[in-house]
Write a structure and sequence with these properties.
The chain is of the alpha/beta class and about 325 residues long. The protein has 14 helices and eleven strands. The chain has two domains: about 180 residues, D-Maltodextrin-Binding Protein, domain 2 (3-Layer(aba) Sandwich); about 100 residues, Periplasmic binding protein-like II (D-Maltodextrin-Binding Protein, domain 2). The strands form two sheets. A six-stranded mixed β-sheet has the order 2-1-3-10-4-11. It is found in: Periplasm.
Length: about 325
């Protein structure tokens, strides 16, 4: 596949409001009340149930906010969400027909597509921050750690939540950009929630984690030492909503209505951070106090095609897959 070169861009090509989907092989639920595409629009009063596989993290907040604000109802959609623990579980569920749409990262979707799983990206969702001071998915270390810059990672042990996943790919790409040989850094697996304890125990020199665990480390006197994704580019695309190629092709109306509601939800979330902080504790185990202080994702309605294509190139460059899809191949439509 042809991928755009690894260069920074002041602006990004945007796939407008094009419908994009990460594929599962069918829609979930009973035929009587899911999919179908015909029941929910045009003011008929009928509702179509849409099954969504999601994660218990702040990134998913716009969907819950959109449900609360009635954006999905206005599109004739009743959302039934299932909370899982990983993008891989969501993709597996979509393929099995358990979910119509799944909340997964572009990297996860690209790996699945490269392995002939029929998925495509339907809508954008979220992006990283702009600097180590506001990014919500970063590398952290103890407050007295000698690590100050990416160059200090040489010879150190750092954690990622899963080898061969988003964290490993992005850290390698960011270190390359900073002129650091990523081969000089040992990477081990430590789940995000365990990073604060691993740092305190000295098991790792630095750990890649996400909110609310970044705030936990800071509360313990730790520090942020590197923000890989925002180092590659500010507001770098992270998450998406995907569907199966089969569902996208067979239920175009359903997908169009979901995209419209989700885009509106993301725009509302971007403009109402207080509402995001208020809703996060309602579907996660994040306490209200932490939700009020933690760093929030950047909610991104636009599909940034150049950056997505660049990420697909990383999958090949770092030998995660032999041949990755291009962004055009990954995005539905």
């Amino acid at each position: 596949m042809s991928h755009r070169p690894f260069t920074r861009r002041a602006t990004s090509a945007v796939a407008g409001l094009a419908v994009v989907a990460l594929a599962a092989t069918g829609c979930g639920g009973d035929d009587a009340d899911t999919g179908g595409g015909g029941g929910g629009e045009g003011g008929t009063g009928e509702m179509t149930t849409i099954q969504i596989g999601t994660l218990p993290i702040a990134n998913a907040a716009p969907m819950y906010l959109g449900i609360q604000e009635g954006f999905f109802e206005e599109e004739g959609l009743e959302v039934e969400e299932t909370v899982l623990q990983s993008g891989n579980e969501i993709i597996t569920g979509m393929v099995a027909g358990d979910y119509d749409v799944g909340f997964v990262g572009y990297i996860s979707a690209g790996i699945a597509a490269a392995r002939n799983v029929p998925v495509c990206v339907l809508t954008a969702s979220d992006a990283t921050g702009t600097t180590p001071e506001d990014d919500w998915q970063v590398m952290v270390a103890a407050g007295d750690s000698p690590i100050q810059t990416p160059q200090d990672f040489v010879g150190k042990t750092v954690s990622v939540n899963a080898l061969g996943g988003v964290a490993e790919v992005m850290i390698k790409a960011a270190l390359d950009q900073e002129g650091v040989d990523w081969r000089s850094v040992e990477m081990i697996e430590v789940p995000f929630p365990e990073v604060p304890a691993a740092i305190q125990a000295g098991r790792i020199d630095a750990g890649y984690t996400s909110e609310p665990f970044v705030t936990t480390v800071l509360d313990q006197g730790g520090k942020v030492v590197f923000a890989p994704q925002s180092a590659i580019a500010p507001e770098y695309p992270n998450g998406s909503y995907s569907t199966s190629l089969q569902l996208y092709q067979e239920e175009a109306d359903l997908m169009e209505r979901f995209e419209a509601a989700m885009t509106r939800s993301l725009e509302y979330a971007r403009d109402n951070p207080d509402a995001i902080r208020e809703i996060i504790p309602t579907y996660t185990q994040i306490p209200a106090d932490v939700a009020n202080r933690m760093r929030l994702p950047v909610y991104q309605p636009e599909l940034k095609v150049d950056e997505i294509d660049e990420q697909m190139g990383f999958l090949e460059e770092y030998e995660i897959v032999e041949e990755a899809p291009s962004a055009d191949d990954l995005i539905c439509g």
